[in-house]
Design a protein that fits this description.
A seven-stranded parallel β-sheet has the order 3-2-1-4-5-6-7, sandwiched between helices. It has a single domain, classed as 3-Layer(aba) Sandwich (Rossmann fold). The chain has helices spanning 16-27, 39-46, 62-75, 99-127, 148-167, 186-192, 208-221, 232-241, 243-254; strands spanning 7-11, 31-36, 52-56, 81-84, 130-135, 173-178, 225-226. It is α/β, with parallel strands linked by helices. The protein is globular.
Length: 256
């Protein structure tokens, strides 16, 4: 593991990728601040784990995130790693999705990242040490039909994190933006239960452990973009070099 600090703060730690990341870091000896809006999920994350502390919070509330971050530093110590994993993932045709749902997607998936970055990064930059990890998606690089609202949030995550990295290069903090394909977590079920694109049936969901392993490798290599999973790097390149051909294939597969 590339982590060489003592305290980690993880959003979306009540399930899925965030929960697994919390367990891994705790097993490695870190003190973990587990943030999530679900107290039930946090109870599962912290069960039997003396070095994981639960902090119920809605990441869309700026003041609440600021307050929780201050509590974490007072109770656990300076934050050495931040993992932004809080997200929701309903799919659907853009004009069919409720407007409120689309705005909520952006508020959680992107707005939460903004709130957490403003609360945690200044301290890490001041100390010249830390890891800042954002969970984007391959859909944040290569959108497809029926995923527009979710993909838009992940494009925002990718852009925000990339600019954030370049504005703070050579200041001691390592930045990674991870863009996995479909991952076998409870979050994926939200998409499956709404509108699942045929295009995503081409490759089975990858294991969350593979994503976390890829993040550590990117940190060790000093790579900003982390593209886990078979075909992710190829898709990243094709989207940039042949966007028309990619969309032609998307329409062919989806049938509209």
């Amino acid at each position: 593991m590339a982590f060489n600090g003592k305290v980690a703060l993880i959003t979306g730690a009540g399930s899925g990728m965030g929960q697994l990341a919390a367990w891994r870091l705790a097993a490695a000896g870190a003190r973990v601040a587990a943030l999530d809006v679900s107290e039930k999920g946090l109870a599962q994350t912290t069960a039997g784990k003396s070095n994981i502390e639960a902090y119920p919070v809605d990441v869309t509330r700026t003041e609440a995130v600021d307050e929780v971050t201050l509590r974490v530093t007072q109770e656990l110590g300076p934050i050495d790693r931040v993992i932004n994993a809080a997200a929701i993932m309903p799919f659907g045709r853009l004009l069919d999705q409720p407007t409120e749902q689309i705005h909520r997607l952006m508020a959680i998936n992107y707005g939460g990242l903004v709130n957490v970055s403003k609360a945690t990064l200044p301290g890490m930059l001041e100390r010249g040490h830390g890891d800042f990890i954002s969970f984007s998606s391959m859909l944040g690089q290569m959108p497809t039909l029926l995923t527009g609202a979710y993909a838009a949030t992940k494009f925002a995550v990718s852009c925000y994190t990339e600019v954030l990295y370049h504005e703070n290069r050579d200041r001691g903090v390592r930045f990674v933006c991870v863009c996995p394909p479909a991952v076998k977590t409870p979050l994926l079920q939200q998409a499956i239960e709404t509108s699942w694109p045929k295009l995503l049936d081409g490759n089975p969901p990858i294991a969350p452990e593979d994503v976390l392993d890829a993040i550590e490798t990117s940190l060790e290599r000093g790579e900003f973009w982390c593209l886990p999973g078979k075909g992710s790097r190829l898709g990243y390149v094709m989207r940039r070099l042949m966007p028309g051909a990619v969309w032609k294939q998307v329409h062919k597969v989806e049938g509209f």
